[in-house]
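BUG: 3D viewer hangs when loading the predicted structure for this chain

Environment: internal workstation, default settings.
Expected: structure renders.
Actual: progress bar stalls at 90%.

Input used:
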Amino acid sequence: MAKGEALKGHIEALRNAIPELKGVLLASNEGLPIAHSLSNGADPNRVAAMAAAASSLGRRISESMNSGTLGEVSIQADEGALFVYSAGSKAVLAVISPQGGNAGLIHIEARTTAKDIGDLF
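Structure tokens produced before the viewer hung:
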């Protein structure tokens, strides 16, 4: 299986595991979209850039606090949440949840997906 197909498979598996998600996107650390499944009309280029920026800021904060390697960043808003997970050293996984989404289930599934994707790189 080609790497691109494997990445899309991981994203679709996450979407299938948690159908209420508004979107899932994999981006390079530079903010370029690699693969995505967005249902909320969001622009994948914009989401990728924002996810990479959030991850970069989180990484800098973790390093300045001597807290080790960044695992994830969570952003809560009135109508939903964005969770950004480190997917190895080269990519980030962004998960868009509606308000009231099951954060525990999202974290369990997305952390596993991010690790699996990181292993592909």
